[in-house]
């Protein structure tokens, strides 16, 4: 069984508006049978942090196009994207490249 993990999840570029305007979240992910990866983290975020309009953040089992994901300041595309296995104290940053005004204005992108 994988041990609980403590990670920092941060939202920027307007994406934080979907999370009650809170940019940084220090979260403890519970222990589970499978190791935590970004795919599982997105499910956890949707259930536990996302406050409104999930369609502006999640598309299928990934983030919506237009959201840049950095893991410990590195582009997630270099690290395996959804399959990246989280490590204790990782920092995951989600940045809307559409600059938030569209999220705040209620657009569907």
Automatic annotation (TrEMBL):
<comment type="subunit">
    <text>Component of a complex at least composed of URM1, CTU2/NCS2 and CTU1/ATPBD3.</text>
</comment>
<dbReference type="InterPro" id="IPR015221">
    <property type="entry name" value="Urm1"/>
</dbReference>
<keyword id="KW-1017">Isopeptide bond</keyword>
<keyword id="KW-0819">tRNA processing</keyword>
<comment type="similarity">
    <text>Belongs to the URM1 family.</text>
</comment>
<dbReference type="GO" id="GO:0034227">
    <property type="term" value="P:tRNA thio-modification"/>
</dbReference>
<dbReference type="InterPro" id="IPR012675">
    <property type="entry name" value="Beta-grasp_dom_sf"/>
</dbReference>
<protein>
    <recommendedName>
        <fullName>Ubiquitin-related modifier 1</fullName>
    </recommendedName>
</protein>
<dbReference type="GO" id="GO:0005829">
    <property type="term" value="C:cytosol"/>
</dbReference>
<comment type="function">
    <text>Acts as a sulfur carrier required for 2-thiolation of mcm(5)S(2)U at tRNA wobble positions of cytosolic tRNA(Lys), tRNA(Glu) and tRNA(Gln). Serves as sulfur donor in tRNA 2-thiolation reaction by being thiocarboxylated (-COSH) at its C-terminus by MOCS3. The sulfur is then transferred to tRNA to form 2-thiolation of mcm(5)S(2)U. Also acts as a ubiquitin-like protein (UBL) that is covalently conjugated via an isopeptide bond to lysine residues of target proteins such as MOCS3, ATPBD3, CTU2, USP15 and CAS.</text>
</comment>
<dbReference type="InterPro" id="IPR016155">
    <property type="entry name" value="Mopterin_synth/thiamin_S_b"/>
</dbReference>
<keyword id="KW-0833">Ubl conjugation pathway</keyword>
<comment type="pathway">
    <text>tRNA modification; 5-methoxycarbonylmethyl-2-thiouridine-tRNA biosynthesis.</text>
</comment>
<dbReference type="GO" id="GO:0002098">
    <property type="term" value="P:tRNA wobble uridine modification"/>
</dbReference>
<dbReference type="Pfam" id="PF09138">
    <property type="entry name" value="Urm1"/>
</dbReference>
<dbReference type="GO" id="GO:0032447">
    <property type="term" value="P:protein urmylation"/>
</dbReference>
<keyword id="KW-0963">Cytoplasm</keyword>
């Amino acid at each position: 069984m994988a041990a609980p993990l403590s990670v920092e999840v941060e939202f920027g570029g307007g994406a934080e508006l979907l999370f009650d305007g809170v940019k940084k979240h220090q979260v403890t992910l519970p222990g589970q049978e499978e190791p935590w990866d970004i795919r599982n983290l997105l499910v956890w975020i949707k259930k536990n942090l996302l406050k409104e309009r999930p369609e502006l953040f999640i598309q299928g089992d990934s983030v919506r196009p237009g959201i840049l994901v950095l893991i410990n300041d590195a582009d997630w595309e270099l690290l395996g994207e959804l399959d990246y296995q989280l490590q204790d104290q990782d920092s995951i940053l989600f940045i809307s490249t559409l600059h938030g005004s569209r999220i705040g204005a209620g657009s569907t992108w």
